[in-house]
């Protein structure tokens, strides 16, 4: 994967991750395909990561992989959507998470029994997984021109659609993100961020506990 890192200030470092460079791999349960965007520790296995961000293609209905001790966040990227049925030990549905509009978000525990029903054909979704007790993660949707202050251990700006430009701190250079590109910012501390363009971003903030 081609990564390009540049310093932003005395603490923060940026890494541009192009969507075209992401590598497809089978799900943990073999029921679909995932493309890892970033993870910590680097190259950690599916049972050893502190956090992991990925894109998944869901071609058919079926159960989700289960990850004990992991908090999960899913956002719909494309397709007509899916309904995630959370069931109890007796296979009774206790909650249904509906992802039917672009960037609809669902949050649930990784050990939960989740079965996916597709609304009308294949979907693509964005996944954030964080190990409970080791880190916490927040996901926000940013649309249009946005001015924010970033402060976390890691921030990932994922371009969910369209194209956007991102300016950080006092940098003269802007980072241009197309769909499925990610700008990773390590150790931003009160770092100003300006986003311009017609696209939409998923902003993920990760803090270690």
Automatic annotation (TrEMBL):
Pfam families: HutD (PF05962). InterPro entries: RmlC-like_jellyroll, RmlC_Cupin_sf, Uncharacterised_HutD/Ves. PANTHER family: PROTEIN VES. This is Histidine utilization protein HutD.
């Amino acid at each position: 994967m081609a990564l390009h890192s540049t310093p932003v200030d005395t603490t923060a470092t940026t890494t541009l991750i192009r969507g075209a460079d992401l590598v497809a791999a089978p799900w943990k349960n073999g029921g679909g395909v995932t493309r890892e965007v970033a993870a910590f520790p680097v190259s950690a296995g599916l049972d050893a990561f502190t956090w992991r961000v990925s894109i998944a293609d869901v071609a058919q209905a079926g159960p989700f992989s289960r990850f004990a001790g992991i908090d999960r966040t899913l956002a719909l990227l494309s397709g007509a959507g899916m309904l995630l049925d959370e069931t109890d030990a007796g296979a009774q549905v206790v909650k249904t998470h509906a992802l039917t509009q672009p960037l609809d978000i669902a949050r649930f525990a990784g050990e939960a029994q989740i079965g996916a029903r597709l609304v009308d054909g294949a979907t693509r979704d964005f996944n954030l997984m964080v190990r409970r007790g080791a880190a916490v993660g927040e996901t926000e949707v940013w649309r249009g021109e946005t001015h924010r202050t970033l402060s976390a251990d890691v921030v990932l700006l994922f371009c969910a659609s369209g194209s956007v430009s991102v300016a950080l701190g006092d940098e003269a250079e802007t980072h241009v993100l197309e769909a499925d590109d990610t700008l990773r910012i390590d150790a931003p501390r009160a770092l100003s961020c300006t986003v311009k363009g017609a696209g939409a971003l998923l902003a993920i903030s990760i803090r270690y506990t």
